[in-house]
Amino acid sequence: METDIKKTTLILGAGNIAAGDEGFGVHVARRLAKTQLPTDVRIMEGGVGGFDLLGHLEGVTRLIIVDIIALEKPPGDLFLFKPGGTSIEPGKKVVSFHQVGVLELIQIAAIIGCEPEVFVLATPPETMDWSFELSPALSEAADAAVEFLRGVIGDEFASLGKYVTSFPTIYSIGSVPQGPGSS
Fold this sequence. Notes:
Elements: E1 9-14, H1 24-33, E2 41-47, E3 62-68, E4 79-81, H2 99-111, E5 117-123, H3 136-154, E6 171-172
Parallel strand pairs: 1-2, 1-3, 3-5
Antiparallel strand pairs: 4-5, 4-6
Helix pairs in contact: 1-3
């Protein structure tokens, strides 16, 4: 007999909050945490925690990492993708400032039996200056990221997997369908 068990989702905001746009993920996590969320969705400011975050993955079946990404695209454009592996291969281009730490975290979690489905929501940074504020482009992107995440939370993540394939295919949020009731 099958039971209807809800997946536990962790939305992890990564980045250094003192380095301007590098703190994008933390800013998104803070904004999202101020909204009403279902009990099976947790928000966490991961900062640059690396392996310290391992214990927070227990019981998590879906992990959404919010971060910046090094892409030749305009700052503030949002992209959604699934990482294509859990290790860095020789010659592989690292596309996120936290990718190595996050991938190592996911790899270690898998070794101990914790294998959440992983998504990355990211944007290219505009500036990496010492500041606790986001640039105007990334501040707007943080609002858009919160709206996007609230949409996929609202449809119980049904739309999340419909338009995401493995890296290196990266989908612009503007080009993918949103949850119910979005324009």
